[in-house]
Amino acid sequence: MSQTSCRLAIDVGGTFTDVVLVDDDSARIWFAKVLSTPDDPSRGSLEGAGEILQRTGIASSAVRDMVHATTVATNAVLEGKGAKTGMITTAGFRDALEMGREARYDIYDLGIRMPPPLVPRRRRMEVNERIGVDGEILTPLDEAEVAEVLSRLVEEAGIESLAICLLHGYAHPGHEARVAEIAARLFPDLTVSVSHQVSAEVREFERSSTTVVDAYVKPLVRNYVGRLNQGMADLGMSREVSMMLSHGGIGPASDVAETFPVRMIESGPAAGAIAAGHFAREALEQPDAIAFDMGGTTAKISVIQDGEPAITHEFEVGHVHRFKRGSGYPLQISAIELLEIGAGGGSIAHVNDLGLLNVGPKSAGADPGPVCYGQGGTEPTVTDGDLLLGYLDPGHFLGGDMQLDLAAVKASIEGGIADRLDMPVEQIAWGIHDVVNESMAAAIRAHGAEKGIDLRNFAMIAFGGAGPVHAYALARKLGLRRLLCPFGAGVASAIGCLAALPAVELVNAYFARLDEVDWSLVAGHYGAMRRSGEAALAKLIGDDSELSMQRSMDLRCQGQGYSVTVPISGGGAEISLPALYDGFAEIYQNVYGHRPPEVPLEVVGLRARVLNSRPKLEIAPALEAASGSALKGRRPVYFEASGGYVETAVYDRYQLPLGEIFRGPAIIEERETSIVAGPDTSFHLDPAANVIIDFKE
Amino acid sequence: MDTLDPITVEVLWTRLISVIDEAALALHRTSFSTVVRESHDYTCMVLAPDGQSVAQATRSIPSFIGTLPMSVRAFLEKFPAETLRPGDVIISNDPWIGTGHLPDLTIAAPIFHGDTLVGFAGAIAHMADIGGRRRAPDNKDIYEEGLQIPILKLYEAGQRNETLYEIIRQNVRVPDEVSGDIHAMVGACQRMSTGVTDLLAEYGMADLWGLANRIIDLTQAAMQRAIAQIPDGVYSSVTKIDSFDSQQPLEMQCRMEVKGEELTVDFAGSSPQNPSPLNSVLGYTQAYSTYALKCVLLPDVPNNEGNSRPIAITAPEGCFLNPAYPAAVEARATVGHYCTSAIFNTLAQALPDQVPAESGIPLHGFAMSGWTSDDRPFSTIFFFNGGQGARPDQDGISTLSFPTNVSTTPVEVLERGVPVRIRDKSLLPGSGGAGKFRGGLGQRIEMEITASRPVTLVVLSQRLNFPPRARQGGENGSLERILLNDKEVEGGTPFRLDKGDVITLELPGGGGFGASGDRAPVLHEADLMDGLA
User: Fold this and answer.
1) pLDDT tier, B1 (very low <50, low <70, confident <90, very high otherwise)
2) pLDDT digits (tens, 9 = 90+) for A331-365
3) pLDDT grade, residue B359 (50/70/90)?
4) Is the pTM of this model over 0.80?
5) Is residue B337 less than 8 Å (CB to CB) from chain A?
6) How far apart are CA A276 and CA B27, in angstroms?
7) Which domains, ranges and CATH numbers included, belong to chain A?
8) B402 contact residues in A (CB cutoff 8 A)
9) Which of B5, B399, B412 shows the shortest C-beta gap to A423?
10) Which residues, at least 6 apart from A531, have a Cβ–Cβ distance to it below 8 Å?
């Protein structure tokens, strides 16, 4: 082990803080789990770091990097605990934040609710200034008025943070920058978020919303990162902490906190998707996969293509209606695209008004939890159904730490749903499993359709407590051929932190018909983007690193409202116009199933990703030599393909021999979950200790 | 499989909607028409072999729920089921058997499972253009409104009808965009067909009937139960709307009879059809009336034929809610949107604690044409929304689209494409009707013309005379106002505006719900602090 070959990752979740330490020289990896400390998540993080260093005996000076994923910013928005924030806008536009898009996210719900603006109208102030669409100054900035408005916001309204969002500021930032200067001069302690820095994209509502969320979480994130960095220094670590960003890159934590913390809003889930991308690259020949993480209350889906999670530029946080798009605060940031579905182990089954079996969205959560937990739950849940079907072992839940009450589950279904539907208990149990899977499959299919990909060629990577239990039947519904249950799924987000590449995503609003583009101007934009990306990365990994820039353009048919992001091949200054036309036609055909009509194309944005391709993460799990028999026993398990219960082999995941091919049906038990493999599958353990399940042809 | 159990029905129903949603998403993203994109003014649907609707796309607006089944029934009259072949696609834009105006194309393709006709895949979308004098308030009949496409085969056994195709292309201003949209619709139908036959194969079903009947019957029963909760009786209301002639408002007479599990609505006594495009064909009147009833009575059940079975909606032929051919009908949306008001105003008498106050409907906005500053011709339309009516348990939401669902165009985007400058776009304090719960606020838009040559501007206006109504002792929402260079004017006729002219719209807020004396002090104080009261 060289002196500085170790890297540390810490992922703060709602219940547990996961810590992973990897030695890049030997590829050895260690895990730790400690309880999270929601009042100050940095405490749990430092405890976890201390614990793993102590346990492994590795000196803190040997740790080269520490990468961190946290929900601290999201939680501030969800719980309304951000800073008291004010806003300065162009005269006539202070209500843009509240008026929004003026559309409904549910067309039948007359009782629809919208998220309240994070800055109420009383703290949104207007100043006289106006810049035109081409940058012409129509009304000069009234600087005296700016000073007056600022003192009212700070001294009378008591704001701690300020968002500045002026009309057309995305392209013509002069006035915004001047307002920020005046604020910094008059009130140096105020944190300030300026729209053209946070999100230089057209659309005043979405940009305001992004800037306001940024301002709202900034003071909190800054304090948090300060405590974390100090704590790590006290542990003896020399490098500063890096932060996992929403788009799957990493950046210096203090830099993220000082500039625009909104970029780390989906830190934890992004890390999970990055881990899935890593597993796909390592274990699959063609690394296309659906990452499926099903927990107690929700399931999260992300799509991995060519080993990379899909990135979205339309993101929302703080949904009023948790699973309805349009009910949250829109953010114009690059983020890993995650589909969240209201289906988890705790989702409650019930008979709806039409007399049909429904599952969710109501959840028993962790308290009282499913009926089988025996903690007061009376309504049957997805986990209860899974238990009845034989997928879970009542005596081996959480490695045997918790006994599950099968009789109570039967009684709860017999007395309720079975009576109402006049069907046997076992069929109801299968119904619960099937209905929840079908609704997840529907969401995944719609997601695929929106992205225009044929998911049948994808594998599925299953995580979470309920993921491996449901993945087999879900994959079967979706027509997938291969399932992957990774080693280290329990700490996937922390693994993702280590697999992430240092990267910066940049976007520049640029509008022109493709045949009228000013290419020297475009080259200038890309040059500026490269410089700003390199500067940001230099702070993270030093300025002697090998950096590359991937360029792309958002193109669309003139007249359409949705654009397609087309990569520009090669790194040279020359951009080939025919290649752009061809690239557009090809992507369009893939996405929508037909060729684009013969109309002029227009450019609506320039994108760049500056990244460093440092050595990839390699993990050699410290597998204990299989000391006993992998076969633990047999029990009856329900499979649709078999038409009911069949006597099924139960294996211990930790005793599976490498490479040997087993035939389904089987249950493969591990500490936190069970893997279900149906009668139409075979499975094996791969060299990285992943369980791979293949459907028979 | 004889009867499907309640679990299989749920699973297959979810699957069927998922198949349609997939097709609809692809249609949405590839469309050229902004109305499709911004207002979801399109639909995809799977219908039974006799034209009953079985399941519809989740996100599209529901005004087509009644019209697509009606179209397919008319298609079947002209092309009987036994004459249809795989690869056929039927098309029409006849307002009277379709969606009420010419820009919407309705297409349907038979779905074959083996040799059996198992249903239809249908799609409707609003085209970017259909010829004619677009949005002209003085169009007197349908011949002025554009190209009429009778019921014809667009594809015959997979072969495109090139004659029809060329006629369509020649008669629209943007042929590439229109044919692109048609292309996308046909693609959506193919996708639905494949999805349905895959589903039938997977579950070993010979046809859709078993599933279709269960879905429709269950929904019908749920709607009947909801109607049974309404006290029996006869309820009626009069709702007035502005016409293009301010002296001659149009009247909607709405009489609702509830008897047990059945509900009938009759619009007898409403104004006669008029020589302007403010006429709504019966199918469209029925669609929006049914939508309003569904929002109050059964919002959670997916849309299908079962919703409308216990409901009968009639209007005598020759009134503006059931005009006779060849009436002009392009502005049928304005009329149709008010059908939701007529239903709410009537139903509120039966269910006073469940029906919200009126919203600042319908759509408001500008249709504008002329030359940009660099001398390119432009023609565009953009919308702004009034406030939502107060609900029985909460304030109305400010600036919210209803009953359609149209996003507003961002100012930064608008100013890039159209020679205007928006000087103000703000909530309009005091516009929401006071009450225990306040109506959502309308907005004020101040727009300056920056084009160097004069532009033609039509204000899509309403509610200059009839404010959004309150409920239960609340106060009405505000009226709309139009100002040209600070002087109040009427809409109705097109304006010719020069550089520097400023047109201002003040849009109505929603009506209030309950007496304002009952308003919680904390809500009142918040309104005062935020300058909204």
Assistant:
1) very low
2) 988 889 988 888 889 999 999 988 999 998 888 87
3) very high
4) yes
5) no
6) 31
7) 1-36+46-69 (3.30.420.40), 77-221 (3.40.50), 268-343+437-493 (3.30.420.40), 347-435 (no CATH), 503-612 (3.30.1490), 637-695 (no CATH)
8) 104
9) B5
10) none
